[in-house]
UniProtKB/TrEMBL annotation:
Signal sequence, start to end: none
Organism this protein belongs to: Massilia consociata
Limits of the Stress-response A/B barrel domain: 2-98
SMART domains hit by this protein: Dabb
Superkingdom of the source species: Bacteria
Stated name of the protein: Dabb family protein
InterPro entries: Dabb, Dimeric_a/b-barrel
Length: 100
C-alpha cells in the first residue's frame, strides 16, 4: 500500500477570490477525484479548522493499493484538470509518498 499525503498553503488572494473561498473550491475539485481509479483505498481532503493548529490550508490524505494505482490517479484526466487551479492558488506545497 502507498500513502500519499499532500499539504498546500494558499495565497491570500488568487483567481479573483480569497484564501478561504479558494480552499473550499480546491476541496470541491479534489473531492471529485475520490473514486476516479480502482485502487484508491482512502481519499480525504481536509481544510484547516479555526481554533486548531494548522500551518497549511488544505491537506489530502490518501491511500492506494499500490504504486500503479497512485500513478493511474496522477495520470487521470480528472486529476490533471484540477492541477492548474491548484497551481494558481497555492503558495507552497509539501508532499510525501511512502509504502507500508
Amino acid at each position: 500500500m502507498i500513502k500519499h499525503i499532500v499539504m498546500w498553503k494558499l495565497k491570500d488572494e488568487a483567481e479573483g477570490a480569497d484564501r478561504a473561498t479558494n480552499a473550499r473550491e480546491m476541496k470541491r475539485r479534489l473531492d471529485a477525484c475520490a473514486g476516479i481509479v480502482p485502487g484508491i483505498l482512502t481519499f480525504e481532503v481536509t481544510l484547516a479548522q479555526p481554533g486548531l493548529e494548522a500551518t497549511y490550508d488544505v491537506v489530502l490524505y490518501s491511500e492506494f493499493a499500490d504504486r500503479a494505482a497512485l500513478q493511474a490517479y496522477i495520470d487521470h484526466p480528472t486529476h490533471k484538470a484540477v492541477v492548474p487551479f491548484i497551481g494558481a492558488v497555492r503558495e507552497a506545497r509539501q508532499c510525501m509518498d511512502y509504502e507500508v
